[in-house]
Design goal:
heterodimer; A: 113 residues; B: 116 residues; mainly beta; 0% helix
Chain lengths: 113, 116
């Protein structure tokens, strides 16, 4: 089954404790992206990747890191999480660099205390 | 910068009736794409329908249709014969060169409640 998977689905952590949210797709997509969703703001892009070893900032990259060492994986790293990073996070992938036909993962709900 | 506006924070509709969810976009691009996604209470993002700026016909997918009015820069979602399972958050989104071809720009969303 073609899908984008994220882990963990739910995470409660404390300020400053490094964490990684994994994202993996099995569709051989070149393009992957991370979004965060906050009430009243819709989804906003954090980082995206056009291919292996190619990443770039989105609209809200502060406090986040990403890497793309393999085509299928695009982890999101929070080196020192803060409460304002409490949010619902989505990973997405698509065939090409265009944003059309993005497939979304199930989401990761993160709470930073 | 590209911007999506959804002016209806919440909508109510009776089961089996049609409902229109509004979306306006702000772009100077000639080439762009418009999407609608559904987000049920379980949280996942479900793709509903897509309209390209050069598509002359309004997009349709089953009970969903997109009322695309290019001159007015509107891309309203029409759900015909509403069902209880349509109760969800609905997001309008777009891509284009001003906002970046590599990301979707989302509106704030409209919460739809379908009553029996």
């Amino acid at each position: 089954e073609a899908q984008v998977t994220q882990n963990p689905r739910y995470l409660i952590t404390v300020t400053g404790k490094k964490l990684t949210v994994t994202c993996s797709q099995n569709m051989n997509h070149e393009y992957m992206s991370w979004y965060r969703q906050d009430p009243g703001l819709g989804l906003r892009q954090i980082y995206y990747s056009m291919n292996v070893e190619v990443t770039d900032k989105g609209d809200v990259p502060e406090g986040y890191k990403v890497s793309r060492k393999e085509k299928r994986n695009f982890p999101l790293i929070l080196e020192s999480p803060s409460p304002n990073q409490t949010s619902l996070y989505f990973c997405a992938s698509s065939v090409s660099g265009r944003a059309n036909e993005q497939f979304f993962g199930p989401g990761t709900r993160l709470t930073v205390l | 910068a590209q911007k999506i506006t959804q002016t209806q924070p919440g909508m109510f509709v009776q089961e089996k009736e049609a409902v229109t969810l509004d979306c306006t976009y702000d772009t100077s691009d000639q080439s762009y794409g418009l999407f609608w996604y559904k987000q049920p209470s379980s949280g996942e993002m479900i793709f509903l329908i897509y309209q390209g700026s050069y598509d002359e016909q309004n997009a349709t997918e089953g009970r969903y249709s997109l009322n695309f009015q290019k001159a007015r820069k509107s891309a309203n979602l029409v759900i015909s014969a509403s069902q209880l399972g349509d109760s969800a958050m609905y997001f309008c989104a777009s891509w284009g060169s001003a906002g970046g071809y590599n990301k979707l720009i989302f509106g704030a969303g409209t919460r739809l409640a379908v009553h029996p």
